[in-house]
Design goal:
Blueprint: E1 5-7, E2 24-26, E3 32-36, E4 39-44, E5 47-51, E6 59-66, E7 73-82, E8 85-91, E9 102-108, E10 111-112, E11 123-124, E12 133-141, E13 144-149, E14 157-159, E15 170-176, E16 180-189, E17 211-214, E18 218-219, H1 233-237, E19 240-243, E20 250-251, E21 270-280, E22 284-293, E23 295-300, E24 303-309, E25 328-334, E26 337-347, E27 353-360
Antiparallel strand pairs: 1-16, 2-5, 3-4, 4-16, 5-15, 6-12, 6-16, 7-8, 7-15, 8-9, 9-10, 9-11, 12-13, 13-14, 17-19, 17-21, 18-21, 20-27, 21-26, 22-25, 22-27, 23-24, 23-26
Length: about 375
C-alpha cells in the first residue's frame, strides 16, 4: 500500500495537463485544467474525476478549493467502487453558515441519498469563503469521518455512521452545477483494515419497523403505484428481505437499481413496493408514522389509505424533500393476527427511501417531544 499518494493537479500557465492517462477517469466532460487565483487548478463543472489506481480505506484527504458562490456543489469522493457507488462529502458554497452548508451522503447504485441523511451527523454549518483558496481536510477512520474547512482546529462536520460497508476504493473529486476549482490534492492512506464491526447506533423510542421485503424495481410510466402488485408465485420469489437501519430508514437504492431508461427519465419515476407484516393480539387502532422520498402510496390490509408527494420543491418548509419520521401519520385499524402494510415508494432524485413505526394512540415519541 502506498502510505502517501500525491495527486498533483498542475500545469504551466496556459498549458493544459492531460488527465486522460491510464490513472484518471475524467467522467465530467467539462473538467479542465486552468490557472485560477494565481495557481494551477482543475475546474470540475458537473461530474466526477476519479483516480483509477488509488486504494483508500482510512486516512486523510486534503485539497484546496476555490468556490464561486452561485448555486453549485463541490466535494470529495472516497472508498469509491465507481461514481455510482461511493462515499461523498460536499460543500454548498451558496449556503455558507447555514445548517446544511456541508453534507455527507452515501451513493448507492447512482442514487445520492441527501434527502434521507440530514441533521446531526450528516449536515452541518460552516463558513465557506468565496473567490479565494480554502483548505479542506477530511479524516476518515472506520465508519467515521471529520471535515475541517479553512484550517479550522475543530471539525465543522463529524460523521459517526458512514453508511456504505467499509472497503478500500478510489479517491476522487466531484462538482455539480458549475462546481469549483481544485488544487493541491494530497491523499495519505492509513495502513488499516476493516473494523471488526460497525458501531451500534442508539435505538429510537418507540422503535421503528425493521423487517421489510422489497419488490423488484419498476417505473411509474408502466406500473401504477396506487395498485398493489400482482400476487403470484413467480413475483413472490422476487421479493427481497431487508433490515432497516437503526433509525428505521430503508435506503432502497442500496438494494435496487433505477428502472427508468434515459427516454423515460423525465416523465416517470423509479418505483418499489415495500411490505411488512405486523401481528396484533387484538383489534385495535394505532398510529402509523412514516417518512418517504419522493412519493408514497400507503396500503394497510389491501386498502389504499394515503397518497403523498414530498419531492424536492413540493411541500416541506425548506422545499428540500427531506425525509423524517414525524410529519406524516395515519390512524390504522389492525385486526387480530397478521396485518400487511405496503408502501409504494417512487423516486426522481435526492434519495429513495422510507421509514415507519407504529405507536399506541396517545403515545409521544422521544423525537417529537
Amino acid at each position: 500500500m502506498l502510505t502517501h499518494l500525491f495527486l498533483l493537479l498542475a500545469m504551466a500557465a496556459g498549458q493544459a495537463v492531460p488527465f486522460t492517462d491510464a490513472r484518471w477517469m475524467l467522467l465530467d466532460r467539462e473538467a479542465r485544467p486552468m490557472p485560477y487565483l494565481g495557481q494551477p487548478s482543475l475546474f470540475i463543472d458537473n461530474g466526477f474525476v476519479l483516480l483509477r489506481d488509488s486504494s483508500f480505506g482510512d486516512g486523510t484527504i486534503e485539497f484546496d478549493i476555490a468556490m464561486h458562490g452561485h448555486t453549485s456543489f463541490a466535494g470529495v469522493v472516497f472508498r469509491a467502487a465507481s461514481s455510482d457507488d461511493c462515499e461523498l462529502v460536499y460543500l454548498r458554497p451558496f449556503l455558507s453558515r447555514q445548517a446544511d452548508a456541508v453534507q455527507y451522503t452515501p451513493v448507492f447504485n447512482g442514487f445520492f441519498g441527501w434527502q434521507l441523511y440530514n441533521g446531526k451527523g450528516y449536515t452541518a454549518a460552516a463558513e465557506l469563503p468565496l473567490n479565494r483558496w480554502v483548505h479542506v481536510k477530511l479524516v476518515v477512520a472506520g465508519y467515521s469521518a471529520q471535515l475541517f474547512i479553512d484550517r479550522a482546529q475543530e471539525p465543522q462536520l463529524t460523521v459517526t455512521s458512514l453508511k456504505r460497508p467499509w472497503a478500500r476504493g478510489m479517491v476522487g473529486l466531484w462538482g455539480n452545477f458549475g462546481g469549483a476549482n481544485f488544487a493541491n490534492v494530497v491523499v495519505s492512506p492509513a495502513d488499516t483494515g476493516a473494523p471488526a464491526s460497525r458501531p451500534a447506533d442508539s435505538l429510537p423510542t418507540p422503535q421503528p419497523i425493521s423487517a421489510w421485503e422489497l419488490s423488484p424495481a419498476f417505473e411509474t410510466a408502466t406500473t401504477k403505484p396506487d395498485v398493489l402488485p400482482a400476487r403470484n408465485p413467480n413475483a413472490a420469489r422476487e421479493w427481497t428481505a431487508v433490515t432497516a437501519e437503526s433509525s428505521g430508514l430503508v435506503n432502497i437504492a442500496q438494494y435496487r437499481h433505477a428502472a427508468r431508461t434515459p427516454s423515460s427519465a423525465l416523465s416517470s419515476r423509479d418505483l418499489v413496493f415495500a411490505r411488512t407484516v405486523v401481528s396484533s393480539p387484538r383489534s385495535q387502532r394505532m398510529k402509523l408514522v412514516f417518512a418517504y422520498s419522493d412519493e408514497v402510496h400507503l396500503f394497510v390490509n389491501g386498502r389504499l389509505l394515503f397518497e403523498g408527494d414530498s419531492a424536492f420543491a413540493r411541500r416541506d418548509p425548506s422545499s428540500l424533500g427531506i425525509a423524517s419520521l414525524g410529519p406524516d401519520a395515519v390512524y390504522v385499524d389492525l385486526h387480530p393476527g397478521a396485518n400487511e402494510i405496503v408502501l409504494a415508494v417512487s423516486e426522481k432524485f435526492g434519495g429513495w427511501g422510507f421509514a415507519a413505526r407504529l405507536e399506541a394512540i396517545g403515545s409521544e415519541s422521544e423525537s417529537d417531544r
